[in-house]
Each structure stands twice: as structure tokens, then as C-alpha cells.
Amino acid sequence: MSVQTGPLVIDTHELGRRPGNERTYHLSVEVPAQWGYDVYGVPEGSLIDLELRLETIMDGILATGTTAVTATGECVRCLTDVEDEIDLEVQELYLFDRPSDPEEAEESQWLEGDLLDLEPTLRDAVVFALPQHPLCDPECPGLCPECGARLADDPDHTHGAQIDPRWSALTQMIEPPKE
Q1: Model confidence at 106, in pLDDT bands (50, 70, 90)?
Q2: For residue 82, what are the contacts with CB-CB under 8 A and spacing of at least 6?
Q3: Are strands 22-30 and 47-56 parallel, antiparallel or unpaired?
Q4: Interatomic CA distance for residues 146 and 157, integer angstroms
């Protein structure tokens, strides 16, 4: 983990390493990179609102808070624009020292000096909260498979009974040929 300066990096020097010290932050910063996936996510530059409490405990600093972001994308059924407010509670322990065990270090967050980087924790929380298949409405009927019309705009949309050309010869058994 390499901490750089940025809007989601907090200097904890004033908090100290004495258990019981705490500090509260109210932040509204721009999302530094696209958080999400191709169809749906939090765009770079959009705002993330964060209410955060940092508390010193024996092993490190416990970060607890709530965050709100706006995710945008497309409905996977009808391709209309979707925008949702995502509210999350986050909690992460940032250890004072990097663990010596490589497996434990991979699963842990730690301070770099006195700097605490919230970005990985917030990004993971937001991405895991995003639906895999965003919908404009849970009952979205999608698009017409024949012409691509949005079925929610025209619930009575039909193309009439069309017979698959592979089966058209069978219709002659039911209907006599027209002469």
C-alpha cells in the first residue's frame, strides 16, 4: 500500500496513538477515479459525502462512518439512464504497523506514517454495494426482441403472429393453399 496525498488521505498526527482519542470529519470530495463497472458506477469527479469518526485503539485507528454517492449507468433491460443514491456504512481498522505476515498484510489496511488512505476502503464498499444488473424499475419489461422498442413506453406493443419460416410448410397442413 502506497499512500499519496489526495482528498481521501487524512493526516492522523493530531489524533496521536493513545487509545481513546477520537476525531470527527465531515467531507465532501470528488471521486478520484471511476468506481464501478462498465454499465454502472460512480463517475470520476462526482461528489462523495462522508461523515467519519476516527478513533485510536490499541492496534491502530478505527475509521467508522457513513457515505453517500450517486451511481449512474444504464438499465440492463431497456438501456435507459439510471441514477441512484447509494448510502453506506463503512468501518475499517487501519493498523499502526504493517503486518509482517504477507497474507495478513494483503487483507489489512495500515497507516503510512501518520497518513490514512480512505480511498481503497470506500471504493471497495461502494463497488460491492452496486447492483450487478441495474434496473430503471424492478418491473422493467425491457426491449422488443424484434424491433428494439422500449416495452415500458408501449405496453400493448405487438407485431402480430409471425410464423418462423422454418415451420411455414406446416401451416399448409392446417390451412389449405390459397388459389
Answers
A1: confident
A2: 40, 72, 73, 74, 75, 134, 135, 136
A3: antiparallel
A4: 11
**The pairing of beta strand 109-110 with beta strand 81-95:** parallel
* Residue in this structure with the C-alpha cell 405487438, named with its chain if needed: 158
pLDDT of amino acid 6: 77
For residue 94, count CB atoms less than 10 angstroms from its CB and return exposed for 0-12, middle for 13-18, buried for 19 or more. buried
The confidence score (pLDDT) of residue 78 equals 92
In this structure, the dihedral spanned by the alpha carbons of residues 171, 173, 175 and 177, taken in order and rounded to 10 degrees, is 90
Sketch the domain layout of the chain as residue ranges.
9-129
Grid cell 490499541 is found at 58
